[in-house]
Amino acid sequence: MAHIVKINLLEAINYDYNIEIHPDTPSEGRSIHELFPAHMVQGMYENLNQMGTTLGLKFVAQDRLSNSYSAILLGEYIHLHHPEQESRYHDAVLSLPGNNAITSSHNLD
């Protein structure tokens, strides 16, 4: 039988600062064009793809900016307290619908 344990993730990982780039993003996300004009978004993806080429990465343009706070926080908790599960957590998060921003032709592990 599984047991549910409630913890305060912020206390568990001992963070007292914001770990998000855009902490004002609502939980449902928002259009990336609310923050940046189209030419900046296009330029950002061009730069990302240029840098990613040597690693075999291709960044796919996204219309929505996700709120990743909970995923980042849980990832940090797992990293600190259950490192043996870290790879499994990353695989699960990156396989969720809508997480297709990066494709890879190389195994980066």
What does this structure look like?
The chain is mainly α and 109 residues long. The protein is built from four helices and four strands. It has helices spanning 9-13, 38-52, 69-81, 86-94, and strands at residues 30-31, 57-59, 64-65, 102-104. The strands form two sheets. A two-stranded antiparallel sheet has the order 1-3. Strands 2-4 form a two-stranded antiparallel ribbon. Helix 3 (69-81) runs antiparallel to helix 4 (86-94). Residues 104-109 have low confidence and may be disordered.
Taken in chain order, the helices and strands follow as: HEHEEHHE
Distance between the termini: 33 Å
Tell me about the largest β-sheet.
2 strands, antiparallel
State Rg: 16 Å
Name the average pLDDT: 77
The number of strands is 4
Strand order of the largest sheet: 1-3
List key phrases describing it:
two-stranded antiparallel sheet, 109 residues, two-stranded antiparallel ribbon, single chain, 4 helices, mainly alpha
Structure summarized in a few sentences:
The chain is mostly helical. It contains 4 helices and 4 strands, in the order αβαββααβ. The chain has helices at 9-13, 38-52, 69-81, 86-94, and strands at 30-31, 57-59, 64-65, 102-104.
